[in-house]
Design goal:
This protein is of the alpha/beta class. It is 27% helix and 19% strand.
């Protein structure tokens, strides 16, 4: 009996999203790295989403941003991303709020920049110093321009000693900001887990954010499409491609995001497809690849 698995087919490199768009009724599109780089929007990506909506498909932006969707919408407005490019936004911050709403009166320590405090607006929580907290919610690093997760090791060791619950409001390890990669809350949560703690992750690739996205779909469609008619678009193996595979969706991988340097796909250049194949050799694979999203 031959137990050798057949070779995988080569991943297709698309010249335009229009080549596969007709196969899908629902698009779950990542934000950072796909429709903007943290500084400016990608007009071609916005146009592609507008075009697929014109075919009758629905588009929901699914982001690991630790803030509620209204904050992300305002930020996209400021970047010039047209609201005609999407039907709605679902964020890791939305899921975080749902988790915290189930713990009324909880004594919570916020680990992250002050700009994320709006995530807790209207919730029944008691904000406390770390020493008095029963749970920690991490939205990011205090100064992500210069800090690394290891700067938080002493704090995490204190938390682990008390076995504090740790809610990660952004499971991303890194994200694009212009031409740089900066650490996110997921990198701190990962270190907490390595120290023996237990983190609750509120965004991709974990199921709750996809469940929320499908629930929101019913605000614009009569029913949720079957998984084979749902496409996730994103630039990260760990969150976007893995999350889509776990949910049973197809995925389109954007190579000029956080993997751009290792795939030689900086600034929207076509990736080295041998390196792409190596990236996906051992785990979930996307259905197709594009350097940047365009129609």
């Amino acid at each position: 009996m031959n137990d050798v698995a057949p070779p995988r087919s080569a991943l297709p490199l698309l010249s335009g999203f229009s080549e596969i768009a007709g196969n899908y009724d629902l698009i779950l599109c990542d934000v950072w790295g796909v429709i903007h780089n943290g500084v400016s929007a990608f007009p071609a990506a916005c146009h592609a989403l507008e075009q697929v909506r014109a075919t009758g498909a629905s588009v929901f932006l699914v982001s690991n941003a630790p803030r509620p969707n209204a904050f992300v919408m305002a930020m996209l407005d400021g970047m010039g991303v047209p609201r005609t490019a999407y039907d709605g936004i679902v964020t890791s911050g939305d899921v975080t709020r749902s988790v915290l709403a189930d713990r009324p009166g909880a004594r919570m320590f916020h680990l992250g920049p002050a700009r994320d405090l709006g995530t807790y607006e209207g919730l029944d929580l008691v904000h406390t110093p770390l020493g008095e907290a029963e749970l920690v919610v991490c939205t990011g690093l205090l100064n992500d321009d210069v800090e690394t997760p290891d700067d938080y090791r002493p704090m995490l060791e204190q938390m682990r000693a008390r076995d504090l619950a740790f809610v990660c409001a952004n499971p991303d390890i890194v994200v694009e900001r212009g031409d740089r990669l900066i650490y996110c809350a997921g990198a701190i949560a990962q270190l907490y887990d390595e120290l023996g703690g237990s983190s609750l992750y509120c965004g991709k690739p974990h199921p709750p954010i996809y469940a929320e996205a499908l629930k929101r779909t019913l605000t614009v469609r009569d029913s949720v499409p079957v998984p084979s008619r749902i496409l996730a678009i994103g630039d990260a193996l760990r969150t976007d491609v893995t999350g889509a595979a776990g949910a049973g969706f197809d995925s389109l991988f954007i190579s000029s995001g956080i993997h751009a340097i290792e795939l030689r796909s900086e600034h929207g250049a076509p990736p080295d497809m041998e390196l792409v194949e190596q990236l996906f050799a051992a785990g979930p694979r996307p259905n197709a690849v594009m350097p940047r999203l365009s129609w």
